[in-house]
Amino acid sequence: MDVLLTGAHGTVGSAITDHLDREFTLLDREQPGDGDDGRESRPDYDTVVADVTDYDAIRPAFDGQDAVVHLAGYPSTDGSWPEVLENNVVGTRNALEAAADAGVETFVFASTNHVVGMYEVENAPDIYHPDFDLTVDHTGPVRPDSPYGASKVCGEGFGRYYAENRGISFYAIRICSVRDPEYDHPYGDAERGVDRGDWERGSEEYEKMVARMKAMWHSRRDLAHMVECCLDDGSVTFDIFYGVSDNDPERRWFDLDHAREVLGYDPQDSGEEWDAPPER
Q1: Is 171 a catalytic residue?
Q2: Which residue of the set 74, 128, 148, 183 is catalytic?
Q3: Which numeric CATH code is attached to 2-182+219-273?
Q4: Of the candidates 39, 5, 1, 77, the residue with the CA atom closest to the CA atom of residue 223
Q5: N or C, where is the chain less crowded by C-beta within 10 Å?
Q6: How far does Cα 164 stand from its chain's mean position?
Q7: What is the pLDDT of residue 149?
């Protein structure tokens, strides 16, 4: 299976290429090393330099592909309306249109937990602890917490349109907390805050970040496995899945049963297996 991976050089894209052995073509608006992110180039893959906001520039990359994993977009809740409009709304529509025009069968979309982020906003920090009784599944109403979250709702809506009108099989993964390798563990956000000087290890804020990540962590290998499950599935017209590891169901408020039942998703990692950060 030939797979086009857009936004390929970001945190999620590198998790996929690090853990899956696939025939990927990488598409990103710049080569690694062109910016200040410190990422290394991937000469083992064909790479297309183009911006998803430019339909004519990206369109040829979709020819001959069996599937698209669409990650490109503005990746954070701090995005302004112009940023998420161009990168997430226009960019996602362009990718779907290019896929439909090229006859691509499968489209895996990097959505986000922020499409239902108001559950967390309203209930934090109590929601991070095992005694909070809430499970959010794919049937619940969208409750975006930001223009970024709303832009991903729009992407899911375009996915429904292209699935029902253009014959694409559309898989939306509402990704939770995927991190770069250095912080790929449930203490990652807390330790990153220590490294930035935001708080001290063991502080109240540090412990809150640990509690949150023990609920929200999606390990890099589990994320890659979920993407592979989508690519291998073949049964879905349109569906939504929560991208999260096998964290304690008493702590994790996102449903995993649907992904297990439909995709055969079998996550290997759990935040509860960790009681301290890794030694450096």
Answers
A1: no
A2: 148
A3: 3.40.50.720
A4: 5
A5: C
A6: 23
A7: 98
